[in-house]
Target: Glycoside hydrolase family 88 protein
Amino acid sequence: MIIQIIGLALLCIIAIIILIDIVPIGKDWLSRIHIGRYQDKQLWNKSITKLGLKWLSTTPKIKVTDHTRLVVIDMLKGNYTKSAIQHWQEASLLLGMSEYLIHNDDKDVKRELRKYLSLKFDSQGQWLHMPNHVDAAILAYALMKLDFIETDNYKLALDSTWAMIKEHIGHDGTVAYRKFMKGYRYVDTIGFICPFLVSYGIRYHVDECVDLAVKQIKAYEEQGMLEGHHIPSHAYQVDRNVPLGLYGWGRGLGWYAIGLIDAWLELPNDHSYKPVLEESVKKFATAAVQFQQEQGNWNWTVTRGECRPDSSTTATLGWFMLNASQIDEISELCINSANKATNYLMKVTRRNGAVDFSQGDTKDIGVYSMLFNILPFTQGFCIRMMNSYNGLKVVKR
Model:
């Protein structure tokens, strides 16, 4: 009898393990039936925004590994997801919703965002869980973009973010991705920190912040770009100026793009760094558009037409192009590129409004995910891009 009970228990455990593997695969298959049926941009925008708001409070967990079998082992080891990954997922959704609120006085959305903020910050405006990695700076930046709240109420958290970034500055005066890797500079870091540094520096008159953001971008242009093509490597080694990882990693282009364009947007028109970054925007826009595919996407390796399309790359570069179109010299080139990117992203959107086929989280320098699925980061930038179209007519320079 005891043996039978043990055998039954083992069978139940095996069945649960198998279900943990099979259920997500089955859900993806079902969700992709009739994918890409959106034709109307306003309807698409409404759908992706509604789901984005839902995800902000219950953000899908992003896997650290690419394992699709025996996933329960990753869960038990704590390797299924990490908080640093979640920071930039949530930040993107928050950025998308902040852009939505610029054009929509939606009390329900504001209420949900206040609930979200109460889960991240205490009554004094400090982080409930103090971040240790620079990934959190993009979440602090997203907080600063919420016009319906009083940003100064969260000054403690913003100050802590600036202090944390300073702890990551290496001997070359630029910011490392991690404290224990101060000899490397990652392209991701530009997207994580530069918009925050400029926004915080301008708002609170901390020139050092703005200087650091521009230095981070210009250093990468000098050390981390492919000569003749102006696309970034994944990283570079500071002391030897050696590029690391892949030139043309799609989301790497995206991280550079959003760090650059948002930093440029945050600068006042009369700021001395405005024309400096504007030249960088023009140069990168001209370079990146050369790798856009005919159907409007960028691939996960942008230099290879045979690679899979990546929605996260397409959404971030679409956002970049849309805002770069404010510059007269490249306006037509960029708006055409942004429109093509939008049309592609509509074609890879599930019935429930989830934008599909984004590359999973990167494992290490040169070690890239081969899973392509939903990604809150992509969702947020699609929302941000679609809700900013109308505003561009007002702010065009």
